[in-house]
Design goal:
The structure is a single chain. The protein is α+β, with helices and mostly antiparallel strands. It has one domain: 2-C-methyl-D-erythritol 2,4-cyclodiphosphate synthase (60s Ribosomal Protein L30, Chain: A, 2-Layer Sandwich), CATH 3.30.1330.50. It is 27% helix and 28% strand. The protein contains 4 helices and 6 strands, in the order E-E-E-H-H-H-E-H-E-E. Helix 4 links the parallel strand 4 and strand 5. Helix 1 packs parallel to helix 3.
Length: 158
């Protein structure tokens, strides 16, 4: 059996005003917070997309996503779907997500995020781990200036 591990990360600052909904892992949060970015700035889906790209060698977040944004496609689920197209014989067996931010509180929506990721990645909820931290306020994210996410994915050859 061939096993590969992909790693990705992403971060976005909060915008000054509320100009679009906060979306994390494909889940809309009720808080009136907006992340800056050409797309919906879903740091979780961007980190996962980058982790997939680290295994396939085909970068989606960057030129491809920027081009889609110019065409009006700002939904990060579309970027993720594009990255998944390049997996060939590999399938995702496990996803580990870490989120660092002061706001919003992540824990109340962890199960909704897991369900969303399960559907988007076609893997069981039990194979998705999500942890969240404020990092004791040691970074810009822990101080409330934005959100940072990392993703580690395990892939197996089918």
């Amino acid at each position: 059996m061939i096993v590969k591990v992909g790693h990705g990360h992403d971060s976005h600052r909060f915008s000054e005003g509320y100009d679009k909904p906060l979306i994390l892992g494909g889940v809309k949060f009720d808080e009136e917070l907006s992340l800056m970015g050409n797309s919906d700035a879903d740091v979780i889906l961007h980190a996962i997309t980058d982790a997939i790209s680290s295994v396939t060698g085909i970068t989606v977040i960057g030129d491809r996503a920027d081009q889609m944004c110019e065409e009006g496609i700002t939904d990060s689920k579309v970027y993720l779907a594009k990255a998944l197209e390049y997996l060939d014989q590999y399938s995702i067996s496990h996803v580990s997500i870490t989120i660092e931010c002061l706001k919003p509180r992540i824990d109340p929506l962890v199960q909704k995020i897991k369900k969303s990721l399960s559907l988007l990645l076609n893997i069981p909820i039990k194979d998705i781990g999500i942890t969240a931290t404020s990092g004791e306020g040691l970074t810009e994210y822990g101080k409330g200036l934005g959100i940072y996410s990392t993703a580690i994915l395990t892939f197996i050859a089918s």
